Amino acid sequence: MRFSTSLILIKLLVIQYLSVLCVSQDFDFFYFVQQWPGAYCDTKHTCCYPKSGKPSADFGIHGLWPNYKDGSYPSNCDPDSVFDKSEISELMSNLEKNWPSLSCPSSNGFRFWSHEWEKHGTCSESELEQKDYFEAALKLKQKVNLLQILKTAGIVPDDGMYSLERIKEAIKEGAGYTPGIECNKDSAGNSQLYQVYLCVDTSGQDIIECPVLPKGRCASDVQFAKF
């Protein structure tokens, strides 16, 4: 009887250990992704401003995504770790300004932040708790002012066309590392500057050279849309 009880206890401990391993899944780096609202809204898809009003004409955070060096990524790592808005109450005004949702219908941002935490954030719990995760992304945006970097290089959101290489070089000079650029198309078929990827170490603090860059499907010249 004692042997049977001990065996059951050992099995339970093994299951618990394995579940912790799954939750604390290792990853190699983060993609820190910022999106240009002018490109998000200037497509065949509609956009809706947040309930807090039209965001400022600035890059907004899309997410902080754990990634592997082979280009794959983990997702939805801990179904038990649900988004808790009380965890980010101190960050609310900062999130509304720097991490706005442009999806429809108009929202207060909770749906967007919840999605980002549950799909991506839960895969970084070995490094960052929920509040730390959102705080890390906000600090990274403060560290890298993309709009100012581009403006300094004479690249402004005026609906003009700019060389993709020029944009990459400007960001590399300003941020210190090579960015990944993702483009979309407007209703006229113009390739637009949409998202900028920078890589961050597993602590969520330091920008690093990307082990692998996303495939952006951009034209050689891209439009920097007004917003």
From TrEMBL:
Q: Does the keyword Signal apply?
A: yes
Active site per database record: 62, 116, 120
Origin: domain of life: Eukaryota
Identify a single GO molecular function assigned to this protein.
Answer: hydrolase activity
The record's Gene Ontology cellular component field reads: extracellular region
Q: What's an example Gene Ontology biological process for this entry?
A: RNA catabolic process
Q: Which InterPro entries match?
A: Ribonuclease_T2_eukaryotic (IPR033697), RNase_T2-like (IPR001568), RNase_T2-like_sf (IPR036430), RNase_T2_His_AS_1 (IPR018188), RNase_T2_His_AS_2 (IPR033130)
Transmembrane regions: none
Q: Which residues form the signal peptide?
A: 1-24
Keyword Hydrolase among UniProt keywords? yes
Alphabetical keyword list:
Disulfide bond, Endonuclease, Glycoprotein, Hydrolase, Lyase, Nuclease, Signal
The role this protein plays is: Self-incompatibility (SI) is the inherited ability of a flowering plant to prevent self-fertilization by discriminating between self and non-self pollen during pollination. In many species, self-incompatibility is controlled by the single, multiallelic locus S. May remobilize phosphate, particularly when cells senesce or when phosphate becomes limiting.
The UniProt similarity line reads: Belongs to the RNase T2 family.
Name the UniProt record assigns to this protein: Ribonuclease 3-like
